[in-house]
Amino acid sequence: MELIARTTKQLGNAIRRARKQRRLTQGQLGAHMGARQATVSTLEKGEAATQLRTLMDALAALDLELVVRPRTTAKIQDLEDIF
After folding, report:
1. What is the number of domains present in the chain?
2. Global confidence as pTM
């Protein structure tokens, strides 16, 4: 399932959803990433201070990839309804 994220909060929600689909706790995901549970929590909250490396580690641990493409014409409100 593909999700579109335009904000850090939406991206954090997408990470949370993927983690839960794999039935992992934040601590377990953190262990796969080599990070603390608190780091996963910060990422899932969409806090702007999250490092790019942390995001990439989480995506790798969840067997996900980041795709960069031109924006769709959907409004941000439409996208938030997905989450």
Report:
1. 1
2. 0.81
20 domain residue, yes or no: yes
Distance (Å, whole) CA 9 – CA 24: 20
Full domain range(s) for residue 17: 8-66
* CA distance linking residue 83 with residue 14, whole number of Å: 8
Residue 7 corresponds to which amino acid? T
pLDDT in tens, 24-79: 999 999 999 999 999 999 999 999 888 999 999 999 999 999 999 898 876 656 65
**Residue 34 backbone class (left: φ over 0; alpha: ψ -120 to 50; beta: rest):** left
